[in-house]
Write a structure and sequence with these properties.
Layout lengths: L1 H25 L6 H27 L3 H18 L7 H31 L1
Helix pairs in contact: 1-2, 2-3, 2-4, 3-4
Length: about 120
């Protein structure tokens, strides 16, 4: 029951944060723009790690954790401007897309396992 609640919070929180991001950004000045990105990354890392870890424990496919880590790393490189300001948006979008696809695969594998165990 507890894992289901954590999964529910994870599945609802991330889309909610993404949906509210433009509203949150409207309250920040350009100087605070970087702060907002760091805060969003700070939410994404533990939520993604928890969701992927719980899924991996169910279905055993550790490759999804690697894909998720690559996505988070791309987001980090984009937000931190390690490769320059001009790559922030493409790297962040690529990282977010990879994390999203990884979560969808994680969900599908977990669901497939759940359906087969009740069949």
């Amino acid at each position: 029951m507890g894992i289901s609640i954590i999964c529910l919070v994870h599945c609802l929180a991330l889309p909610l944060l993404v949906t509210l991001a433009p509203l949150l950004a409207a309250g920040f000045s350009l100087d605070d723009h970087s702060l907002l990105h760091w805060l969003m990354l700070g939410f994404a890392v533990p939520l993604s790690a928890l969701g992927l870890w719980l899924g991996m424990r169910r279905h055993g496919d550790w490759r999804l954790i690697v894909l998720g880590a690559v996505g988070i790393a791309l987001m980090f490189v984009g937000v931190s401007h390690l490769l320059g300001d001009g790559l922030e948006t493409p790297l962040t979008l690529l990282g977010v897309s990879l994390v999203l696809c990884t979560h969808l695969l994680n969900w599908r594998l977990s669901r497939r396992l759940h359906v087969h165990s009740h069949a």
